[in-house]
Amino acid sequence: MSDKKKKSRAASPKGGGAFSAKKFWITVLVSLLLVGGIILLYIFLPVVADKSEENALIKVPANATTENVRDSIAKYLGEKYADNVVRVSRLRGTDFSKRHGAYLLEQGLTPLQAEKKIRQGAQCPVKVVINNARGVDLLGKKVEKYLDFDSDSLKKQLKDADFLQEYGLTPDNALALFIDDTYEVYWNASPKTLSEKIGKNYKRIWNEQRIRKAKELGLSPAEVIILASIVDEETNKKDEKPKVARLYLNRLKKGMKLQADPTVKFALGDFSLRRIRNEHLQVESPYNTYKINGLPPGPIRTVTTGDIDAVLDAPAHEYLYMCAKDDFSGYHNFAKDYSTHLQNARKYQQALNRRGI
What we know:
By secondary structure, the protein is mostly helical. The chain is 52% helix and 8% strand. The chain has 14 helices and six strands. It has helices at residues 3-49, 66-77, 79-92, 111-119, 136-143, 151-157, 161-165, 191-205, 208-216, 221-234, 241-254, 261-268, 305-312, 338-354; strands at residues 56-60, 101-105, 126-130, 181-185, 321-324, 332-335. The strands form three sheets. It has a two-stranded antiparallel ribbon. Residues 4-12 have low confidence and may be disordered.
């Protein structure tokens, strides 16, 4: 055998060993990639494949922890979905304590998309409905149901004379700012932010035309709203409101006391009263229009734009007295003189007696 063949045979085992080592490391690498892929699938597949089954408004409180957010999501979209959102947040290092607000997670949103929405602070505005609030206290209780502040915070804002001055209002008549309507603000809005939003609507409503009509009546916008609030409590009949409004305007013009029963109920803090008796009329209050001259200091409830226009566009007539009809239809009998009014009042009182009221 030649030396060349010997060298060739001697080299073969050495080359085969190098190939086997290379093959081994390739196998190890492929295995690691497969394991890594499986791990990545385990981690990421749920966050991109899982989807919310319904719309959910998630509220993140101030200085929220990851657990706070997880519990809020789990309440509406389940534990698994919430865990997947938290998994993404931890990978991204999201700080929920800086994401105070309300977020709408729409149906079909993946945990990856949900986390991104909260992380980026993409809030959804909430609707605040203002209607039939009898006084600032009740207004505050209504509003705190929608937003992340308490009623005392709003009441404090409505005592800010400098803020109210911009709208021609004072702490006494601050309720006039809140015209019945639906307003959109962020859940984490402050009392001032909400009041400014509502103030824009107030200025829009009180345009040049309405301000001119108010001046022709000798009233300020706030005084129109105060009168509108009394009219609105006197009758729920839309077609009768302008007539009632003119009656009170007639009394104001003649310097007569308004003698409006709703203001007595407001002074007593009891709107459930169905019959105002003489003892009720003795209450000492700037809202008791049986004792004070002119309008009370503020509205006794929030009003609609329609209520405002019922005062501004009240048709002329000479009625000075009114009394609920004895058929309990909700309408009133009107009178120009006191003797006729007494006859109407007697009929109504007799009807109340028959019903045991």
